[in-house]
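Record format v2
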Amino acid sequence: MDLKARAHRSLRSARYLLGGLTTALPSLAGYVLLPILCFSLIVAPVLPWAVRPLRALADAERRRAERVLGRPVRRPYPTPEGNAYRRTLQLLRSPGTRKDMAWMLVHGIVGLVLPVLVLGVLLSLLLTISIPLWWWTLPGGTLTLLAAPLTTWMQAIVLSAVCAWLLAALFFWLAPATVRLETRIAEIMLGTWTGAGRRIEELTASRAGALQAHEAELRRIERDLHDGTQAQLVAVAMRLALADRRFDKDPQSSRKMVLDAKTTVDEALVQLRTVIRGIHPPILSDRGLNGAIRSLAAGRPIPTALDLPETDHRPPAAVEAAAYFVVAEALTNIARHSDASRAQVSLRYDGPTLCVTVRDDGCGGATPDSTSGSGLAGVRRRVAALDGTTRIDSPVGSGTTIEVVLPCGS
Amino acid sequence: MRIVIAEDNVLLREGLILLLEEVGHEIVAVVGSGPEIVPTLLEHRPDVAVLDVRLPPGFRDEGLRAAIETRKLVPGQPLLVLSQYVEESYAAELLGLGASGIGYLLKDRVGHIEEFQDALERVAAGGTALDPEVVSQLMSRRDPLDALSPREREVLGLMAQGLDNPTIATTLFITERSVSKHIGSILAKLNLPPSDSGSRRVRAVLAYLNA
């Protein structure tokens, strides 16, 4: 990142932290209100009015954090139900209320200290930069920088430059880091964020993806069978019917019909094989993943090195099929687009996961863009459908590495 | 007969042309996509049109929709819709246009030239040709058919396909007289009005099955 972008980001961070004062100061005021809140646990009817401003404050902080995080900070409040008494009781018991209070206590201090700290560094930086403008107005040697009293212009300029550089580095690091801290506090203390919560969201997304991928697969298979095999068989039936009809009158043309039918049957068989391979490559059933990958690599125009672990361990069929699909797509891409001279495929079982890496020394620049026709978007979808991850590293001019990690279940 | 064909699959198109010409029909036009159907039929006014259900550009039910559109513009235009799969609801949509001059068959039937020829002529003459598969789908949904004897259920199925009494008689190896008797008994048991005319009878039976 260049200096300008860094400075820009740090200043934006400082602005965010300053904005945090709008929630930090009321939080501090909340310290005074907290005893009232606690008291109102006994005087329950007051609680709804006491909780409302707290929630408003927490909401304001959530919105601020969301803008920076780029993802929602979900309100952990259950929808209130029942009569007034039950709703009050729910408010009282809601972990959201307790979490909001805890956040208020933390934010009242952190939200004040952090901006002051960052602002302090920024002001020191500005002050240091301006030293050459005014140091001479002070009596010689009064001002000390880095343990050296300033006595000459040379010293003033060099030392202030060094100090400014140090302070700038500190500011550039500190400002974004404190913003990260503050938004993280907001996310954890104000959101429904928990390890399990996030996992559920990821699972929901990948499950939806899996269903979508599954549906697309089924539609593709249906189309292939409907337009291919089934149509071919109907055509064969028509020709055989014609052949039968002409058999006595015109054996010559009857024979031609039979031959036509036979050609169509052959084509139908080829087509059917393609469809079957698309569903589950038979070679996987016959020879396992290693054998299937060996046969993929054999006869490639680009020499392909294989690093396959010798193991009796067999991952679930869906994982094997996906791994095979990844390697097949990647090798096809390499042959078509990469202009590579060498390729490498490696498999690694790492605990409960299967890691597939395909590397080449070609021109790079591969994108998982669905419009690029590289099939990488398909790879990503199929892998995500199994809750796996895909990493594509393809800088222009220096080869492509595709790394896929697939969980194999327990 | 003068026939228009709508079929996008080259193999099937050629097969259909060969087959229909073989049995002495004249193919006046062949189209390969849904939007071409209506204008072509308006231009040629064939004795019957043979339409595939799934056609470009959308590969959904373009053929079926063109059939419905055509019948609105040219009431009574005989249409035989062919498909690689049958759907009760498609049959219902087609028959909603009135059962006369409507056919809906699996493509597989084309391989049985005589039956296909028969269905084609029936549709062209204003009759009905409904695939046995659709009929059995419809019949499997109706429990009260228990009231019918197995033979009567057979006759009902053939009736629903649009066959006339002589054809039903030949198919089941029985006399036309006993076919008439069975039909009378079926219509009575199902509380349908007695009727001899083909398409009105089919409509009544299908309406009953579809209810």
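Chain A has three domains: 3-190, 200-279, 299-407.
The CA atoms of residues 14 and 119 of chain A lie 7 Å apart.
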